[in-house]
Amino acid sequence: MSGVDNEKMLKDPKVKVEHKEKIKKIVKYKKYFYDYFEQETTDIYSETTILKDKAVTYLVISSPFDKIEALEECFIFAGCFPYLGFFKENSAKEFAEDQESDGLVTYVRPVYAYSTLGNFEDNILSSFFYYDDVGLAELVFHELFHTIFFAKDEVDLNENLANYFGQEMVIDFFKMDKEQQEKRKASRESSSNLSMEVVKQANLLQELYKTKAPKSKADSESILKEFLEVNFKPSVKKKCLELGIELARCFPLKRKWNNASLAAFLTYEKSMDKIHSIRDSKGLSLKDFFGYIEKEYNSYKDSSSKDSFEVWFLNK
């Protein structure tokens, strides 16, 4: 409700010049996105909201103490999600404390952008302004993808598809040459390999929980602490060195890991390689690949399959 029309923002002398430039670019990215997919444009990003905080929302991911599993929060119409979001950081922290007191493990994560899936006219947020041009375009393309495709109760796949299309559209928009594309590909593959190491370690920890069957939160914390020091950190450090990643930039060594933060990581990182391989195997343009996904989703909804759409799609 506090949003201001973009034209007013651009004319307001109190608004920083660099912020005005960001607004102009977001409007340009939006037009490119809807034109690209030949979709009817919406009023999304027609207004700008200057936030009091750096982040717009804060997600609370909760997990049992004896397994890596994000507990779901379900809503009428929208479906289920592996987190609960709050607009105020204090509210998120209070909820996390309540969850912790109930014996759960939590992770509070700031969010700088979100999508209401085209149901409301989402505003440009001042939290967008922290991104550089390429990062901002990828962010906008990611969020706009949610407005043209969203599979109910499929948060993991929805996020991975939005990540994929955001990354690929950046290449088209900025007309990146072969060298730039190869550099991004190498960076993506390096990041993917490192992410897969984190996934591998998470799976090992999951098996450890099953084997040791901790009876209390304190027991599981001891298992986690020992695992991080003996297995996780040495393995991740070795992987970063193998990939030529400076330890100062080896992100898994910088994060605070627990069952909830690992569960959150798995939500946003899995399936990316599979999505790349499906498109490559079909030899489709990005636009045609989107059409293929839509067709598959419609077939899935018409089927009697008991699998998730993620399983249906990724195992084609």
Task: Identify the notable features of this structure and list them briefly.
single chain; 316 residues; three-stranded antiparallel sheet; 11 helices
Description of the molecule:
The model has no long low-confidence stretch (mean pLDDT 93). This protein has helices at 6-11, 17-36, 89-101, 133-148, 155-173, 178-212, 217-242, 259-269, 272-282, 286-302, 309-314; strands spanning 4-5, 47-49, 57-63, 73-75, 79-81, 84-86, 105-111, 124-125. The protein has a domain at 179-273. The chain has 11 helices and 8 strands. The N and C termini lie far apart (44 Å). Helix content is 57%, strand content 9%. By secondary structure, it is mainly alpha-helical. A 3-stranded mixed sheet has the order 1-2-8. Strands 6-3-7 form a 3-stranded antiparallel sheet. Strands 4-5 form a two-stranded antiparallel ribbon. It is globular, with a radius of gyration of 21 Å. A hairpin with a 3-residue loop joins β4 (73-75) and β5 (79-81).
